[in-house]
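Hi R.,

Here's the input for the zinc ion complex you asked about:
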Amino acid sequence: MIIRARNVVTMDGAPIENGAVAISGDRIVDVGKFDQIKARNSLDVIDLGEQALLPGLINAHCHLDYTCLRGKIPRQKSFTDWIRAINAEKSKLSPADFMASINEGFAETKRFGTTTIANLTAFPELLRQLPDAPLRTWWFAELIDVRSPERISELVDSAVESLKFGQNHGLAPHALFTASKNLYQRCEEAGSNVLLTTHLAESREEMEMFRDASGPLYEFMKSIGRDMNDCGNGTPLELFVGTSDASAARSSHALSQWIVAHMNELTQSDFQLLEKMSTKFHIVHSPRSHQYFGHSRFPFKRLDTLGFNVSLGTDSLASNESLNLFAEMRAFQRTEPERSPEKIFEMITVNPASALRQQNTLGRIRPGFQADLIAIPCSGDRDLFGEMVAFDGQVNWMMVNGKTKSIGV
Ligand SMILES: [Zn+2]
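And here is the predicted structure with zinc ion in place:
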């Protein structure tokens, strides 16, 4: 089929006015001016009218497990109090509740135009009940060994086994304060083709715990029996990269497997370390969750200047109010007003595609790429990207894998 729209935003040069995309099966086969596409392809035409056709959006960091926690956790005095609060809420939920939460999350994600999601789940075993995710999903098994450091292999093996039921998968040792160094290492040993993600340098309390061996998070983790010997030796980033112990330093190849969420708390020496890295990991920033916690300013400009690939994600609804990437772009724009709307749009298309190693299949409208597309109304304003970032509604047309999806509103 041919999809025609007032504008086609390919992310390969300027948007195409009166443009069209030809689709065959699950792939894009042609893109250009409507007249040319029609002349080159004898296919049925769907005319979307006064709309902009965009690549489907990619959420680089989410936890659909916690969709049902929206509005349940008021802002806490500290990050540690928030961890206590979410643990208390989670203990009230059954596997059926988490399953319902995941499905509710998918439905909401779809309404806001996300066609691909990097989703961390604490319950990979639930994937058996969900063989066909409604969106293109990377399932990352979130792993925590703070209470069972002797069972790492079992933990990783059973997660990998469960993940086979999902589409695409990866592993997510939760964070340095809940996952041991051995668990991180074991995840890397799962293979260079396995994507990895983690939470790093998120809060001031995490910095205090590792650098100074003190503070509320340090006390809390100690009280639940964590081995605190890795504290007081360096920053979270130093510990993650492994500089304090040369033999444990991550190979640069392994670093490129990582999608690292947060990176709010970085010291001067951390920046020197980042500068020296020849191979860089990918970074995800969640602007509205960041705002909810009141973390230190996300050092976007410095990370961008150092060449890091930065994407946006929503994080979970335990610290955000919706799974809307348009709202994330606006929140980001408020703190980085100099960044152009086009470059901000890359943070939910091209950049996360590359973090997921899908730079040749997702994030653009280009022949050979997956047919994952969305449409939003557009007025024909000259500042199309500005209009896209400002879009504050629900999308009314979506295609994933060459199939149009009902948005369910
Ligand atoms: Zn997260």
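One thing worth noting: The radius of gyration is 21 Å.

Cheers,
M.
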